[in-house]
Design a protein that fits this description.
Blueprint: E1 13-14, H1 20-35, H2 37-56, E2 57-61, E3 65-70, E4 73-79, E5 83-89, E6 96-101, E7 105-109, H3 114-124
Antiparallel strand pairs: 1-2, 2-3, 3-4, 5-6, 6-7
Length: about 130
């Protein structure tokens, strides 16, 4: 079932990157490297990967879509009309953004400003 969403804001909003999760992972990996080098290394690499993603990816909320860009190239477009549900996990310390479309589900780490993300979602894709 496809829902119709209100588009309160006609302007495009680009989210600023947030480095909180990548920095926490890299810092947590440092002492872990001494105890469990393989686990610590894996966590550090994942943190660095998320840091790279935060630097290179851009999320833009348009009037009709959530667009993901790498540089100037559009990677993926998610029309709001195909969204069925969304949620930000752990409101106090947001770490994961989930949304479900008609044909698929998506989980994204919060490597963008969580407050602006939530505001844009509430304006453009209000939950029923």
């Amino acid at each position: 079932m496809t829902r119709t969403y209100a588009s309160n804001a006609a302007s495009t909003v680009e989210l600023k990157p947030s480095y909180n999760i990548p920095v926490v992972l890299v810092i947590a990996a440092i002492p872990l490297l001494l105890v469990q080098p393989i686990v610590g290394g894996a966590i550090a690499l994942f943190g660095l990967f998320l840091m790279f993603q935060a630097v290179t990816l851009r999320l833009q909320f348009t009037a009709t879509d959530l667009d993901i860009y790498r540089g100037e190239k559009l990677i993926r477009r998610f029309p709001y009309q195909e969204w069925q549900n969304w949620r930000i996990f752990w409101n106090g310390v947001p770490i994961l953004f989930y949304f479900k479309e008609v044909k698929s589900i998506h989980f994204l780490p919060i490597i963008f400003d969580p407050n602006t993300l939530k505001t844009c979602l509430e304006e453009r894709c209000p939950r029923i």
